[in-house]
Amino acid sequence: MSPASYRAAPPRVACSTLQVHRPRTKSGPRGQRLSSRRHRDAGPDGSPLAWTDVTTPPTAPSAVTAATIDEAAPRVADVASRTPLELNARLSAATGAQVWLKREDLQPVRSYKIRGAYNLIVQLDAEARGRGVVCASAGNHAQGVALACRRLGTHGRIYVPGTTPRQKRERIVTLGGADVEVIVVGDSYEDAFRAAQQDAADTGAVLVPAFDDPRTISGQGTVAPEIVEQLGHAPDLLVVPVGGGGLIAGMATWMHERHPATRVVGVEPAGAASMGAALAAGAPTPLAEVDPFVDGAAVGTAGRHTFPLVRDAGAQLMTVDEGHACTEMLRLYQSDGIIAEPAGALATAALDAGLVIEPGSTVVCVVSGGNNDISRYGEVLERSLIHQRLKHYFLVSFPQEPGALRRFLDEILGPDDDITLFDYVKRNNRETGPALIGVELASADDLSGLLERLEDSPLGVERVAPGSPLFHYLV
Ligand SMILES: Cc1ncc(COP(=O)(O)O)c(C=O)c1O
Question: What pLDDT does residue 166 have?
Answer without folding.
Answer: 84
